[in-house]
Amino acid sequence: xxxxxxxxxxxxxxxxxxxxxxxxxxxxxxxxxxxxxxxxxxxxxxxxxxxxxxxxxxxxxxxxxxxxxxxxxxxxxxxxxxxxxxxxxxxxxxxxxxxxxxxxxxxxxxxxxxxxxxxxxxxxxxxxxxxxxxxxxxxxxxxxxxxxxxxxxxxxxxxxxxxxxxxxxxxxxxx
Amino acid sequence: xxxxxxxxxxxxxxxxxxxxxxxxxxxxxxxxxxxxxxxxxxxxxxxxxxxxxxxxxxxxxxxxxxxxxxxxxxxxxxxxxxxxxxxxxxxxxxxxxxxxxxxxxxxxxxxxxxxxxxxxxxxxxxxxxxxxxxxxxxxxxxxxxxxxxxxxxxxxxxxxxxxxxxxxxxxxxxxxxxxxxxxxxxxxxxxxxxxxxxxxxxxxxxxxxxxxxxxxxxxxxxxxxxxxxxxxxxxxxxxxxxxxxxxxxxxxxxxxxxxxxxxxxxxxxxxxxxxxxxxxxxxxxxxxxxxxxxxxxxxxxxxxxxxxxxxxxxxxxxxxxxxxxxxxxxxxxxxxxxxxxxxxxxxxxxxxxxxxxxxxxxxxxxxxxxxxxxxxxxxxxxxxxxxxxxxxxxxxxxxxxxxxxxxxxxxxxxxxxxxxxxxxxxxxxxx
Lengths: 175, 431
What we know:
The complex is a heterodimer of chains A (175) and B (431).
Chain A: H1 5-12, H2 19-24, E1 30-31, E2 55-57, H3 58-68, H4 70-73, H5 96-99, H6 103-113, H7 124-137, E3 146-148, E4 163-165, H8 166-170
Antiparallel strand pairs in A: 2-3
Chain B: H1 5-12, E1 13-15, E2 19-20, H2 22-27, H3 34-50, E3 80-82, E4 93-96, E5 114-116, E6 129-134, E7 140-143, H4 144-147, E8 153-160, H5 166-170, H6 179-183, E9 186-195, H7 196-203, E10 211-216, E11 223-227, H8 228-234, E12 236-241, E13 244-245, E14 255-257, E15 270-276, H9 283-286, E16 291-292, E17 298-300, E18 308-313, E19 324-333, E20 339-345, E21 353-354, E22 356-357, E23 367-375, E24 380-388, H10 397-403, E25 417-420, E26 426-429
Parallel strand pairs in B: 6-15
Antiparallel strand pairs in B: 1-2, 3-4, 4-5, 6-7, 8-9, 9-12, 10-11, 10-15, 12-13, 12-14, 16-17, 18-19, 19-23, 20-21, 20-24, 22-23, 24-25, 25-26
């Protein structure tokens, strides 16, 4: 690995050449504009960063959930057959609506990946509403509570403090 | 006075149950079985002499073809398909490499295991780009033509699903199946691509950029958070697998390759690398890919795959073909580095002999091990136990189960035992 002296000189003269890249590669990356980045290229973070404008309640979410999600996850979220969201249960000890550390992950995952056969087909308000319905069914939200970008991150998921962060403890050494 | 067979076997004895030493067998002039082999060969020669020439030596053969496929007689060599939700979510499916039907260490591309969370996308490479954004000086995009001009690295590495060997992890009674179903969510390939550090340096990672959230260009836009440390150390943007473009099943036209890390993090069809301060707690790392422990707690961000081995020959569903000399052969690997040692037992773990490792023994790659074995025709229990360069050794299933909740099937690297019966059947048993 080396950087020819003339490249350094070029860079110092103000020509746009990323030095390190030229040292290892041809530097062919093109500038990426903000409007080229789709929403699913960023996840909603646990503090709520990335939540889009919109809102919904469990009352609004129930019919959407039953039409779009119920055939796999069960009509009230507890029946399955696929990964019941209400729990924990014997068939799913990691029920998402109880087990996951952050409610923001429910929103993010529903928006990017669900429903299985038509991902990204729900509106933002529908995603908020279905998220609220799952949280309501897990006893974490009132049925008429409205969730939005400003308050979804405030939902305290009950299992959050029950994890050991293995990466923090020992990097990638297996348990 | 010539040695009797018994004397020759005694001289080559390595451990109980008939395990032999290849060195001592070879040193003794490989007398064992030699006479029988010569006799068998003679019978075959006589039969050939009497037989008419086969048809294919009497007609012109087929012409060349653009892309070769396996012999028609090998059509049974296929991946084992597992579609747990059937028609409800057919794309959520796995297929296991038929390890018991392969030799060497490289998995043929068409037999590499699959785990798809949202099915295999029909992706058009002309409309695909890799984006690097977030905490970088210069957000960049790269199309395939640009990436093809970068200097590439080539490395042999295994990939293993964190949930591999899940039947053995959670079923009360051992399921009778082959290595494809029991351990087939593990494969080994030569990967060629661009060190991720080169692309990250080009974008200019800001000092606070400690994690990378990778996203696939598939239906669920699968995402996982990866420590920047790993990306910069040995992460690869893989474009080629065993010399040819990635197969659609393995992420065509590009995927992440994070040597030694659980399969799910090696994001297929990768289209976005978002540099962040902290992990995003994506769905996978919040639930499915966490490990429930016996004390009620759970592990998160458990990335490394433990040291593991499995005897593939003989293995479950196979039948022995009479007493005599066999070669026990299998695969060993570790997410922490090179496999230092594999021991084999033929007497249920009472005694162990060190197996031969086939060179090259590479870091975070599959290694073939073997050992000659004289099967006396009686019941025998075969086991293999690998140790890696960090000194980590495979646990027994009983010890492993004690550490995890009964439902956990993540990161099962326990010792596999095969019970050989006097009738010659080979069955999956627990230790």
